Every structure is written in C-alpha cells, then in structure tokens.
Amino acid sequence: MSNYINNKNNDIWSKFLAGDVDALAIIYSEQYTRLYSYGCKITDDKELIKDCIQDLFLKIYINRSNLRETVNLNTYLIRALKNKLYDKFVTNIEIYSIDAIPFDLTCEESFFSQFIMTDEDLLQKNKLTKSLKMLSDRQREAIYLKFIQELTYDELCEVLEINYQSAKNLISRTLIKLREVYFGL
User: Fold this and answer.
1) How far are the Cα atoms of 69, 71, 172 from residue 101, in angstroms, in the given order?
2) What is the pLDDT of residues 143-173, one digit of tens each?
3) Per residue, what are the HEC states of 39-53?
C-alpha cells in the first residue's frame, strides 16, 4: 500500500514539474495533515508550523523550474519542513543544533481513541507515555517516523540524514530501551 501511495504522489509530482500547477494543490491537500502532524512533534507553535508549510509550498511553486524528480515525495517534504523549521529556530536563537530540537512523541489521542478505554487500557497508556518520555528526542523522532509515519528505513535515512545501518541500529536500540523501560527490565 505504501508503495502505491508513493508512486501516486510521485506521478502527481511529475505532473507538477511538467507544468500542471493544479498538481501542487493536490500534493498540498494530500500532504498537509502529515506535515502538520510532524511539525507538532518538533514545536508547540501551531502558527509557526502552518507558516512553514505555507512557505515550503510557496518556495516549491516559485522554484518549480529548478526542481527535479524525487525518489520519495513524502520524505522530501518532511525533510524540507524540518529544515524550514530549523531555519526559523536559527533566526530566533543564536546557536542551535538541529539535533537539539526537542521531538515530542506523546501518543496522540487519535491513536488511543481507536480503543475502548478500560482501567487496564488507561494504565497501559500511562505506562507507554512515561516510557516514551525516557527516550531521547532523536529516538522519539525515529520511532515516530518509522511506526507512525510508516517510513521505510531508506526514507528514515533521508529524513534523519544518517546511513542505512545507523537507522536500523537507532530503531533497534530504541526498541530495546523502550522495552526495558516499559517492562522494567
């Protein structure tokens, strides 16, 4: 299913690059929620996130003649938004590393709303939330991208700007740590 969506998005992107400006509106409407959700994991400033998404698509439109085919539109846009947010942070703070940007991976209520909440469910939710807080920002971001945004390892590498083996190691170590914290091992 993920490959079908990637191919569909890349086809729409190709149409945009070929001059179909309406294709960008389709991309925007299909990607906005995903980008906004990702932005919310980086900052609480909802207006900043909205502005950065708007700026991102405006920049894409203005620079459309210089753009090229992309392997994966989803990761391209996530990475571009991350960089856009980083640029905003840099203009407001003198020295700031992109790795120092906090990443808030609290389980969204929409995730939990899929389940009927019993007392046991509530205890599990609280235990999971506490366990996630024990992870580093980088680990929370990796888990979010891999399991919530459902990125492949190749896509994860592109967004996090790390190599394939590092991505696999990061996810593996994060899951081990999460398991240890959650089960108290």
Assistant:
1) 29, 26, 22
2) 989 988 889 999 999 999 899 999 999 999 9
3) HHHHCCCHHHHHHHH
